[in-house]
Write a structure and sequence with these properties.
This protein is mostly helical and about 170 residues long. It has a single domain, classed as Rossmann fold. It has eight helices and five strands. The protein has a three-stranded parallel sheet, sandwiched between helices. α2 links the parallel β1 and β2. The longest helix is centred in the C-terminal third of the chain and has 22 residues.
């Protein structure tokens, strides 16, 4: 947890949801400062919809993600979060602050964005996802279609193509 990740935005947003909401936030990740750890522990204690799990081994984090209904990325800026790629690989819908890295992974027209730092907009989006099944399914389908961009086969093919181009240019120079 670092300030640029805006790690408590979702915890704050779920406080704005109606009492009838069933949304629960499970937050995995190491606290990189004592202040962040204190805040995470305090929010876990005071917010029944939020639980900070701390740092988990990668396999547990991936299992948690694969069993989730949604990933929320609240970063203020990021170059393309690995967790978004992992969510796509699992066909898990994503909601994200509208930042360049997420736009690169999810597409310009993805309907699951909210403005950076806008807690109310995030809460509204969470509420819509919980109450509008067709909207939730549309995000899920979108993310499933984007799964191809993170497939190991595609990555392997891209590397092979790049290496062939480099090899061809090297041969031309000699």
């Amino acid at each position: 947890m670092r300030p640029v990740k805006d790690p408590f935005r979702t915890a704050d947003a779920v406080r704005l949801l109606p009492a009838s909401s069933q949304i629960k936030v499970l937050h995995a990740g190491a606290a990189l400062s004592p202040d962040m750890e204190s805040e995470a522990l305090a929010k876990t204690k005071s917010n029944p919809r939020y639980s900070w799990l701390g740092e988990l081994p990668r396999w547990k984090t991936l299992r948690l993600l694969a069993g989730s209904r949604l990933l929320a990325l609240t970063s203020q800026m990021e170059g393309g979060a690995n967790v978004v790629s992992e969510a796509l690989a699992c066909s898990i819908p994503v909601i994200s602050s509208r930042i360049s890295g997420s736009i690169g992974l999810l597409g310009e027209d993805y309907p699951g964005y909210f403005p950076v730092g806008d807690t109310q907009a995030l809460a509204d989006l969470l509420h819509r996802l919980e109450t509008d099944q067709s909207f939730y399914l549309s995000l899920k389908a979108w993310c499933h279609r984007r799964k191809e961009i993170v497939s190991p086969d595609r990555e392997k093919q891209s590397w092979e193509c790049l290496l062939q181009k480099i090899s061809a240019r090297t041969t031309q120079i000699e």
